[in-house]
Records
---
Amino acid sequence: MPDLFSFGILMVVRLVSGDYSNMIGGGPPPLDSIPWWVYINYDISHSFVSAFLCITIVQRYNKDIAFAMWAWPFHILLDFPFHSKAYFPTKLLWPITDFSFDGIPWSRPEIWFPNLAGIIILFIYRKYNKQKKG
């Protein structure tokens, strides 16, 4: 959800407007090509303050949905070590503070390949377990 709120909306806007620049290959787009509102959406959606506030509000009305929403702060927890201050730093407690951690970017091979391998292993494991049960 956090990435869809910022980059997902940007992708839809660019697809609808016919702007396909910086969408395929070539690495991350230059920061100056990204609209200002994406930065605000990113800060909102990658803040524990926003996540806990939203979960608390939803909890009052639907506990099952609120429980599923705990994936949001979990995403932030897994994401913040892998963003450098140079490219979309994760401001964990925004708007209280702009503090961010200078992490190792996802784009680095020593991060990207183990992450991809972990996802592939998880899918294989789930498929194997599903076949074993069924």
---
Amino acid sequence: MTQSLYQLKGRFWIESPQGTFLGQGRVLLLERIREYGSISAAARSMQMSYRQAWELVNSMNQHSALPLVQSATGGKGGGGASLTSTGEKAIELFWAVKQDFDAFLAQRSENLEL
């Protein structure tokens, strides 16, 4: 079988009635929050401002029936953030859909001719 000269490429995101809910960047942010236990540390690791990261988290939380991230305000022991079970499910759902999406693009790219 000869390889096609062309390949389909694409990106997807999940929208709610209010707008963008989840995309790859947002999911990566959620994974970093899980890893670091902090929105600010997650933002730094992605070379993103804390404000931008907080706005993305706030948007995801508002677009979901249940919050994806819960945070504690700073103080003597410091603040922090963690994923809720809904946040964990959102990550799992996104990567499962991405796997199906990538498989679809690869299958449709086979023998793609003009």
---
Amino acid sequence: MFSIYSQPDEETCYLLTDSGTRYLCHLSDEKAVNSEESMLEKPSVQHLYIADVFVHDIKLQIRMNFLNHLDTWLVEAKKNSDHATIAKIEELDAEFNLRTQLHIPRAKRIEHDVYNVRAGELLLHSNRVAEHCQGVEKALTDLKMKFFSIKQQQEKMMGEFQNEIELMEPAFLNITKSGRLITLRNQMSKEIQKLMVNIRTSLRVFRVELDQALQTVRESNASLVQNFRLFSDGGNFCPEEVSQFQETIEDLSKMIDENECHILVEMEGMEATRFDQASRITIEFEDRFKNHIFDLLFMETIARWLTNTQVQIKTHVAKNNTSSKDLSNFLSKLKQNIETCEQPNPDLNKVSSSEIAKMFVNSMEMINSRAKYLKCLKTNEEAVILVPCQTALVSEIPSVSKPGKTMLEDSSVVMIKSILRSQKIPETVEETPESSTEEESSPTSNQENSNDTSPNIKTGKTKVKSSVLKSVSRIYKRHLIVNHSTKTVKLKLNFGEGEEKDLEEQEIEEEPSDFLGVIKQLVQNTFVSIGAIAEDYYRQKGSRPITRPQALQDTYENCAVLLGDKLVSYYNQAKEYLQRCHTEFQCQLEELENLAKRIPLCCFVLFLNNTCTIWMKNFLSGRTHSKTPSSTWKSNSNIIHICFNQILVTHKKLPNCRNSMRMKQTDIINSI
């Protein structure tokens, strides 16, 4: 069935199949034989032992059968594979033919698809550029909107600033001091500075954001241009597309530059515009309340004048109180000295009659000066009448100009008359009615004034005549000075009935010395001054309404009346105070009168004590030398006795001579 070809000294052999195929086979080594011989020597395994040859033959047979089957299977497998290959080829040919038939229109379709893809690329490029342009435009629009919001924010800040300025209106309306006005003006300046700082800060922040946004947009433009690569450079853009898109990007860059320039130009002028707007708001506010400031300054000026007048009046009142207090202290001291003289005390200082007399003279001088200051000296009725008739005065006026001519016939008087005739006094200067002044006299001045009536009458009439001329001239001049506007207003206070004459006499005097005259002149001068100020204020005010109707009047006339009433109230208060001073002064006069009744006897007693003491010493010393007194001594003693009796008779209110010292002195005189 098969054949084996072995090679000597080799462990391999060749097997030849039925089909003539030869296969190489490896043989086992001889050690197995040696082992077989060793196994057969054992009796226990002789019946169980299988020979190696038998095994070898079986292996060879199995191999040959397998190889024969393999040869047969190869033939059949080749046939089967050939049939399968032919069938597969036929199937593939059929499929190829089918696919060929199916792909015949695909070329056109591919060409069409290529055109569509390119068109899609072109559309994609256009959309990309369009989206980029839209993004840039949106960025620019956002910048514009942000800039617009900045402007709206600044407008809101300006509105808030204007509201803050408007909120100052109540302060301007209710303000009472110009210093507060300066503070409010400074506050408005600070508000402007604060507003400008906020505006500059917002503009600075927006400028940084603008630069960053524009830089980002420009960088995106540059990157987009760099992405425009040609087909030759590995891109998908044609030259026509690149040139077209570059033109679009250039237009976009120009638009960016234009928007940037427009925003920067507005930003450059915005700060100055806001500052001008804020300044205009404050200026309009100040212009609107300029009248308030003007009225307030006028009110402060009037208040300062009135306050100054009150201070001056209080100064004169304090001066008067000091004078009254000094007089009271002096009278108390005089009373103390008189009591010391009347009731001698070794513990107290001795007072001489000359000191008491000197103090009495000083007290009379103080009384006289205080009476003049209080204007309570008794005057002659003829001296206070304002020239009732010129013909009645001719015989009483002394001839002082030329001998043989009266005063009214003198050339100077004639010249004054001619001047007065040529000058026409304006109608606004009204004649003051003649009224007699109130006379207040002290009890001690009756006898003195009654003794000196005739010389005072002539002197008073002469002074009155000259005072009338001076008064008319002064009133006329003052009218020309004060009434320099178109309106003519009489700047003259109405102190009440009976005060016009005193006012004219006060105008004649340069500096009145009495208390009420000083107050009158002070009040009148204040009225003239504030009247001129008020007239100037109302002339500058014009027809505009006043800003403080609760404190100011509409017209100059009403203001003058109000100020006049105010000053007249000051005068009336001073007049009431003067009445109290008169009462106090009357008490001081009564006290001085009581003291004056005690002074003569007191001084005479002192003089008598001193004289008697001296004469007694001389008498005793002379009596030792001579037994009879001299005639001089007798005459002196008679004079002293007569004077002492006269004092006792004259001062009836004095107590009788019950004092032991006085009685002793009287006895001495009688004995003499």
---
Amino acid sequence: MATTDRTQRAEDRDQARAERARQIIVEILHQAGGEITSRAALSRAFYFAHLYYADRASGYLGFWPILRAADGPVIGQLGDLLADLVTKGIAELGHVQQGPYTSMCYRLTSRELRGEGLDSEAVQSIQDAVNLVQQTSPAELGELIRQNSRSWSTTADGEEMRVIYVDSGPDDEHELWDRRLQEIEEAMNRVWNERLSMP
């Protein structure tokens, strides 16, 4: 029975994380005027929103994986998250012509839709991230990430980036943050393991 409870708690946690990620995506689309025309732009807005939130609220915007790719961060299991939003009638997928290429376009079914359960710091962080992505060329964003993201430069392609505390703060504070992150991860793992071992 304890294993079943533990499994259920883990599934509940994963569902809550996925729902939070979907709400962040919905708010990104809302702040972008109802649509975004590439996976890269959506993923970069998601990534930068987490950084803005860490600076603004000193916490985590969400716990969904952000993975490293050669051209920048990508949202883990983005296809599944978007499929859920499409199934629920919140978003739709389309195509947009970009030169000789056809790209995916992600749209809200109604421009009035917003990310639910997001505090004002989260909404402002998402708005700042969307503004950055819309006002900066993809090449400039890629260079910004390559030059400044410690998590991107220290993570192998396809692996999860440790975004928040690794990329927040100036270089001279990085070692302090890294030690603190290790302490937090160890404490969280202890608490989580204690909760999982509870009957």
